[in-house]
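=== How it folds ===
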Amino acid sequence: MRTMEMIDIGCNLTHDSFDSDRTQVLEHAREAGVVQMIVTGASEQGSRDALQLARQYRGELFATAGVHPHLAARFTSETETLLTQLSKEKEVVAVGETGLDYFRDLSPRDIQRDVFQKQLAIGISSGLPVFLHMRDAHADFRSILKEVRGALSDVVVHCFTGSRDELHDYLNLDCHIGITGWICDERRGTHMKGYLGDIPANRLMIETDSPYLKPRDLRPRVKSHRNEPRWLPWILNSVSAARGEEPSALAAQTAANARRFFRISGL
């Protein structure tokens, strides 16, 4: 009997690195106790593909629909129409991934801001939760989000890696927080361990963001750089250690949070 059941709230399973063994990746996730997964839509085609995958694995996989800030320059009125249509599909449980990324600036910042606002508007009109990305853009991100926070339903700042002050800014806006394998990286994630206990138990969720951000503390070491949902227990263990909680209790809490947030039922 499985002792822990976990939900991965952010995995890019439509990524081409999974094309040759996606079925096996899902089986490995199940064996690890990852019972449900939210497949991230981060582009037009990626959102369509996430929906298709969620339909293929009903009740186990769910989709988001959005355009990542890296691709904001490609966002058109047709994109807006598509995302609005996708938000009406029952397998689509959140709008996003959307937000701001000033770390790489792959799209101009003014366009990123405009596209972020347009997708938040879809979140408002659909009533769906929003799945947000922020990197090195806290001031603008917070300002835009704060302006419409009262009109949105639930909000998660996914893959949070910022400072304690930034964390509390989002908690004060009643946001949920998603923690990834960044917490397992001794080079850049150690600062997070000091504030993970600040996150209210009912607003914490965990995610792999696979195929990115493979936990660096995996043992035995895995040669592939690709992250997978089956490594979610490593993230859970790092978070539970930092919070001084039992992994099984944290697994149950974060799974309950995910089901409530995305409005999904257990298997």
Summary: The first helix runs from residue 22 to 31. The chain has one domain: 6-262.
